[in-house]
Amino acid sequence: MHLILDIAWTHIAGRGRQTAVAIVGVAVGVGFSIAMAALMQGGQDDFVRQLVDTMPHVEVSDEQRSARRQPAEDVFEVAAISGLRPRDDRRGIINPTAAQAWLEEWIPGRFAATLHAEGVIRYSGREVGAVVIGIDPEREASVSPIVEDFREGSFAALTAGGNNVVIGDTMASRLGAGLGDTITAVSSEGLTRNFKIVGLFHTGTTARDEGEAYVLQKNAQILSNRPNAINRISVKLDDPNAAPAIARRVEAELGYKAVAWQEANESILEALVVRNIIMYTVVAAIMLVAGFGIFNIISTITHEKARDIAIMKSLGFSEADMQRLFVLEGLAIGGAGSLFGWALGFSITYALSLVHFEIAATGQEMTRLPIAWSMLHYLIATASALGSAAVAGYLPARRAAHLNPVDIIRGAT
Fold first, then answer.
1. Cα–Cα distance between 327 and 307 in angstroms, integer?
2. Are residues 273 and 398 in the same domain?
3. Which of 105, 255, 359, 401 is 20 to 30 A from 127, comparing alpha carbons?
4. Last residue of a domain, one of 248, 264, 280
5. For residue 151, how many other CB atoms are within 10 A of its CB?
C-alpha cells in the first residue's frame, strides 16, 4: 500500500499545474457551497425563529374543526347531511374557567386567554378597522413578544385599570393620534367606548402594527356585549416542537379547534423543504463540475502512463491495485481541494456575517445577514467533493485496470 501511495504522489506531482487547477476548482466549489448553505440555512432558521417567537405555539379558538354530528346520522345509517355551518356561539369557549384550570394542570409552558372582537377605531374624523383584543396584561406578557416591542408605554400601563388601550404605532400614525390621546372604539354590535392611549408598540409586522388594539379583558367584553366570554387561548410551550401533540390533546379534550404553529404555517414549511432540496442539488452540481476537472487529469495520467501500467502489471500488480492507485489520486485531489475549500468557505461566511444593512419599511427590520454556523455544511460539501473525486478517479482507473500489458508493450494501444 505504501508503494501505491508513492506512485500516486509521483503521478500527481508530475502534473503540478493541472493538479493545482483541479484543486482550485474543488476548493472554489466546496467554499461557495459552504457559504451558500450557511446563508440559506441561516435565513431559514431566522424565519422559523420569527414564526415561533411571534405567534402562539398552539392557539385554541371557539371554532369547531368540523360540524357536530347530527341526530339523524345516529338514527339513520344512510343519512348524509352536507352544507352545515357551525352556529355563531357568542358565548365563546364554554366554561372557560374549567378549561383554563385543566390547562394549568399539565401544559408544559404558559397560556393566556383573550377575547378578540372586530371593530373600528376612530379619532379626529379618521377611522381604521381593527381587532380589539381583551387581555390579562400579566398573562399576555408571558406569551406575547409585543412586550419587548413597545416604543412608548407598556402592557403594565393597562393594569392600572380604567379605559386604557395600547395600539400599534402604524395605527396611531394613520389616526394622527399619540400617547395620551383618547380614541373611540366601535364594536361590530354598534357599541362605543372611549379609551386613552397608554402605549405604542412596533413589531415590524404591518397587520399587527396597524390592526390590533389591546384593552383589559373586561373592557373588551363590555364593548362587544359578551360578558365573561373568551374566544382564544394562546399557548407558549417550553418546547415548540411538541406543539402538534399538545394541540391534538387539547382539541380532543375541549372539543375546540387547536392549531399548532406547524399546522398554521404548513405551506411555508413545505416551501422551505423544497428550497433545501434545490440548495443541495445546486451543491451537488457544483461538485460534479469540479469532478470533471479531476476526471480530466486522471484520464490524462492513465493515457500517459500506459507503459508504466503495463510494467507494473507485469511485475505482479493486480487490477485491483491499478484501480486503487487512480482512485487514491482522485481522492487526494478532492481532499486537498476540500481543505482549501474549508478555509475559503469560512472566509466567505465570515465576510457575509459582517455585512450591515437596514430595512425599516413595512417588513421585519434586519441589520445583519442571518448566518448559520454548522459543521454539517462543511461535512456535506466535503462528502460531495470526495464522492465526485472518487467517481472521477474510478472511471479512468477501471479502464487502466483492464489494459492488456502485452498489447501496450507491443504498441497495440
1. 19
2. yes
3. 359
4. 264
5. 12
The answer to whether residues 156 and 138 touch, using CB atoms and an 8 Å cutoff, is: no
CA dist list (Å): 191 to 194, 195, 221: 11, 13, 11
Q: How far apart are CA 254 and CA 83, in angstroms?
A: 24
- Looking at the fold, whether 196 and 243 belong to one and the same domain comes out as yes
Residue that finishes a domain, picked among 239, 264, 289: 264
Residues whose CB falls within 8 Å of the CB of residue 176, separated by 6 or more in sequence, listed in order = 123, 124, 126
CA–CA distance from 341 to each of 26, 227, 289, 398 (Å)? 7, 66, 15, 28
User: What one-character DSSP code corresponds to residue 160?
Assistant: G
Q: Is the dihedral of CA 198, 203, 209, 214 positive or negative?
A: negative
Residues 26 and 155 in one domain: no
Q: Are residues 119 and 258 in the same domain?
A: yes
CB of 346 closer than 8 Å to CB of 354: no
Cβ neighbours of residue 411 closer than 8 Å, sequence gap 6 or more = none
Per-residue pLDDT in tens (0 to 9) along the chain, 413 residues = 666 666 666 666 666 677 787 788 888 888 888 888 888 888 888 887 877 777 889 999 988 776 666 666 666 666 666 666 656 666 788 888 999 999 999 999 999 999 999 999 999 889 999 999 999 988 888 888 887 788 888 778 888 778 899 999 999 999 999 999 999 999 888 899 999 999 999 887 788 889 999 999 999 999 998 888 999 999 999 998 899 999 999 998 988 999 998 888 888 888 888 888 887 787 777 777 766 766 776 677 666 666 666 667 666 767 677 777 777 777 888 888 889 999 999 999 999 888 876 655 444 455 778 888 889 888 888 888 888 778 777 777 677 666 666 665 565 54
Based on the fold, state whether residues 236 and 272 are members of the same structural domain.
no
215 and 85 in one domain?
yes
What are the two backbone dihedrals, phi and then psi, of residue 197, each rounded to the nearest 5 degrees? -75, 120
